[in-house]
Amino acid sequence: MKRLTCQEVLDQLSDYLDEDARAELVQEVDGHLHECRHCQVEVDTLRRTILIYRHDERVELPASLSDKLKGALEQAYRSGKGGSGSVDV
Question: Over 12-77, what HEC string results?
């Protein structure tokens, strides 16, 4: 079995999470995930994001998290990393 690097796992995540993923890829990524906690977290986060998106319900963020997110986005925009203007979350 081929040993994948973290970057190779991240590059192939969408294929890996596809229900029709080829067995060889799933086996290779699963082998890497068994040994790499960082990639386990990345895959788990993406899986949860996909589930939330598919569920198609509006998810309300706690006010404190929403405020932090707005602040971070506005700071990023002001610093030139995302354009200009404010962000509604």
Answer: CHHHHHCCCCCHHHHHHHHHHHHHCHHHHHHHHHHHHHHHHHHHCCCCCCCHHHHHHHHHHHHHHH
